[in-house]
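Q: I have 182 residues here and want to know how they pack in 3D. Can you give me a structure?
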Amino acid sequence: MTGSYRDEEAGIYLRLMTSADTDRIVAWRNSDAVRKNFIYQDFFTRESHENWVRTQVETGHVVQTIICDSTTDKALGSVYIRDIDRKHNKAEYGIFIGEPEARGRGIGTAAAKLMLRYCFEEEKLHRIYLRALTENGQAIRSYEKAGFRREGYLKDDVRIDGVYRDIVWMAAVAEENGSEER
């Protein structure tokens, strides 16, 4: 991440995740407020996160950043891309706001816009996609504000706690978001 990814209006910036963020990320991902909105809802451990860093981040399959408050530098959440596919120039997007006081303030939308800019400008990706549980309306509206478009509806696509759940598939494409074709 060579550029500056700041949104002064939202009061945030992105920085690359470090090993010092491990305990914070594990706690955030295990909180009910965050975990309930993920397709993968298993509990995280320090060891599983360190394995994620070793096998995914350090190998270039994932770029994970921390969303920080511009005034206090406090970590608020994380935004990342995973399963980076260089042949097709695409990746899957993910985000979570870990700090309760940071939710519902537009920080997720601002972070998504910053991450899309990073993906299109620095990573030279063409397409960023995501999957969201259909009942997570707040997140879906945020994704739309950031530039993602709905592309599909997958009925009973995942089974969580014995219940089949529907998924909305969304994507942002470079030229539709003010970036040139890659």
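Q: Anything worth noting?
A: The longest helix spans residues 107-121. Residues 6-125 form a domain with the Aminopeptidase fold (CATH 3.40.630.30).
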